[in-house]
UniProtKB/TrEMBL annotation:
Keywords noted in UniProt: Membrane, Transmembrane, Transmembrane helix
Protein's UniProt name: Pollen-specific protein SF21
Membrane recorded as keyword: yes
Lineage top rank: taxon: Eukaryota
Keyword hit for Cytoplasm: no
Entry similarity comment: Belongs to the NDRG family.
Transmembrane residue ranges: 114-136
Length: 347
């Protein structure tokens, strides 16, 4: 395990939420961690999807005032980037060993130990959700709960394998080229956000495209190769003893994967939220849809959003506003039922 004197601390105020960046050296290379908040509070760690970091995967969620107040009031946030995905990252040497998904999960325990953290709450998106689920299986005592957005749990289908192979070739020969970014935007967002000949590309997609320009192609390729070689972890899902809240956009390419996963999790401790008219990255496309389910989820841990009765009339947490079924006693506390969120479209 890496000792603290082998790690480098960069005391630089970040624009994003005033967080500070730490570079933690692990057995599989250096990992960037952005820490925001009071480190005496319980820890929430995040892990993004392929080619993303905290800025491009969780900015929308933390810029949603009500969600930010819920999370920042209750947690210290630790944004973990996949190796070489942080802002300003240099290309990783081709001579460095290619990490496996197990290596990436093991890096997380080294990060937790470096910061002296015990059990943590975890939030991950797609590939990041897979890494955190694997982490929870390997280190069950270190995970309080899982919030998974459009998660993966099976080995790649033939369709995904072919899709990833094409992206791998583009990354190898052309780097972060325009066509590759189109593939990635299809992975992340619904068609409405990506735009078409009739509908202009949304600000969200444009911002994401710009942030993708900052990635080093070789670093993204390494993460993609690890995810493409991932094993099926379905058989281990029933053994998880933490609560799990799964979000998925109904336009996500991984929608069926999330539905499969929820059927394999222990029903007493898990819930599915399907977000309509949304792609994979609910954190960016419809972060407001995550608020109320997360409020219910955190209530099982005794956590609440400050000023919930006056701060947001759209999302009160007074007991009279909560379905009794949602608060039925369970051995681990709160029981969540599968719900769908709907988005009304104005003509």
């Amino acid at each position: 395990m890496a000792e603290s004197n082998d790690s480098v601390f960069v005391d630089v105020e970040k624009i994003y939420l005033g967080g500070k960046e730490h570079h933690v050296r692990t057995g599989c290379g250096s990992v960037s961690v952005i820490v925001y908040g009071d480190q005496d509070k319980p820890a929430l760690i995040t892990y993004p999807d392929l080619a993303l970091n905290y800025m491009s995967c969780f900015q929308g969620l933390f810029f949603c005032p009500e969600v930010a107040s819920l999370l920042v009031h209750n947690f210290c946030i630790y944004h973990i980037s996949p190796p070489g995905h942080e802002l300003g990252a240099a290309p990783i040497s081709p001579d460095d060993p290619l990490p496996s998904v197990d290596d990436l999960a093991d890096q997380i325990i080294e990060v937790l130990n470096y910061f002296g953290l015990g059990a943590v709450m975890c939030m991950g998106v797609t590939a990041g959700a897979y890494i955190l689920t694997l982490f929870a299986m390997k280190y069950r005592q270190r995970v309080l709960g899982l919030i998974l957005v459009s998660p993966l749990c099976k080995a790649p289908s033939w369709t995904e394998w072919l899709y990833n192979k094409v992206m791998s070739n583009m990354l190898y020969f052309y780097g972060m080229c325009g066509l590759l970014k189109e593939f990635l935007l299809q992975r992340y967002f619904s068609k409405d956000v990506r735009g078409s000949a009739e509908v202009p590309e949304s600000d969200i997609a444009q911002a994401c495209r710009g942030l993708l320009d900052e990635r080093q192609g070789i670093n993204v390729l390494r993460f993609l190769q690890a995810i493409t070689r991932r094993p099926d972890i379905t058989s281990g899902l029933k053994k998880l003893r933490c609560r799990t809240l799964v979000f998925v956009g109904d336009n996500s390419p991984f929608h069926s994967e999330a539905l499969h996963m929820i059927t394999k999790l222990d029903r007493r401790y898990s819930a599915l939220v399907e977000v309509q008219a949304c792609g994979s990255m609910v954190t960016e496309e419809q972060p407001h849809a995550m608020l109320i389910p997360m409020e219910y989820f955190f209530m099982g841990y005794g956590l609440y959003r400050p000023c919930q009765l006056s701060d947001s009339p759209r999302s009160p947490l007074s007991p009279s506003c909560i379905s009794p079924e949602l608060l039925s006693p369970e051995s681990m506390g709160l029981k969540l039922k599968p719900i769908k969120t709907r988005v009304s479209h104005e003509g």
